[in-house]
Amino acid sequence: MNIRPIHNEQDYEAALARVEALMDAEPGSEEADELDVLATLLAAYEARVHRIDAPDPLSAIRFRMEQQGLTRKDLEPYIGHSGRVAEVLNGKRGLSLQMIRRLHAGLDIPLESLIQPLDEAS
Questions:
Q1: How many CB atoms lie within 10 A of CB 73?
Q2: Which residues, by range, are in coiled-coil regions (predicted)?
Q3: Cβ atoms of 107 and 64 closer than 8 Å
Q4: Topology given in CATH for the domain delimited by 57-120
């Protein structure tokens, strides 16, 4: 086993290539151990360098609507009357704490997305 830290994209690509070569390693073998260690190193590097930020609240809500085939009317139990739903979806009104709680509990939208200010939405 010749494992090195992943410092840059070249190291990252080399580690990915090695992981691909080890994918069929026999459980409990040295190759399987190497695969496990490399996967951990790759995950740490990706978390540090290839970080994916949570989507903004509107994107998260729209994604969940599309995913579950929801309409604006379906959002009323979480956001309020139809006018309020329209204001939120048009970026005219921010989410209240109560709305965030309902959207998270009812539609399983991650809190990390819902707590961002709407004015930073893309």
A1: 9
A2: none
A3: yes
A4: 434 Repressor (Amino-terminal Domain) (1.10.260)
